[in-house]
Amino acid sequence: MKRDPVGQYHFDPETYLAMVLSEVPAYFALQEATAEATTGVVAAQILELGVGTGETAKLVLAVHPMARLTGVDESPEMLDCARKRLPSADLRVGRLEDPLPEGTFDLVISALAVHHLDGDGKADLFTRVAERLRPEGVLCWPTWSSPTTLATR
Ligand SMILES: C[S@@+](CC[C@H](N)C(=O)[O-])C[C@H]1O[C@@H](n2cnc3c(N)ncnc32)[C@H](O)[C@@H]1O
After folding, report:
1. Does residue 73 contact residue 93 with C-beta atoms inside 8 Å?
2. pLDDT by residue (tens digit) across 8-52?
């Protein structure tokens, strides 16, 4: 993962797993817990925000094998990797700050991605997510905060 001069992160699918495991040692447990948390949801349409290499989607779709997954990520390289693992998913290059894909979703998932937005960005995203969720729909967003961030709050 690299950061450009304006503070954007660029993820590399080749190095992503090693990087994320160094930052989030319980990464695989978090992914399994995310999928398990969706078990009670009747989900035909799933939206994922920040698909990355498709790890989260792979496990969530194992719980909801009949569901259609639409996913968004700003990194074409990460999505190329995800497409190999999720050939039936509709994966789109886009930013979380942009309009969300059209449609109504039963379940919106976003693992380790929303923390890239600032407070206003998160509030705006959650407003737009609420507009896309069906009544009783579920947003599942396991997130991350560094010890430094917590210590400086
Ligand atoms: C830490 S990875 C998480 C990927 C996956 N959900 C997982 O748990 O492995 C964060 C992903 O979010 C994407 N991302 C970060 N900021 C974004 C933004 N503002 N809009 C769209 N995608 C973004 C990155 O390209 C990256 O693939």
Report:
1. yes
2. 568 999 999 999 999 999 999 999 999 999 999 999 999 999 999
Atom nearest to 111 CA in ligand 1: 6
What CATH number should be reported for the domain whose range is 43-143? 3.40.50.150
* Structural domain spans, the chain: 43-143
Least confident of 28-42, 80-94, 132-146: 132-146
Ligand 1 binding site (Cβ under 6 Å of any ligand atom): 11, 20, 50, 52, 55-56, 73-75, 78, 95-97, 111-113, 116
Q: What kind and span of H or E run contains 9?
A: strand 9-10
- C-alpha of residue 44 to centroid of ligand 1, in Å: 23
Alpha carbon distance 35, 89 (integer Å)? 17
Ligand 1: residue whose CA is nearest its atom 6 = 111
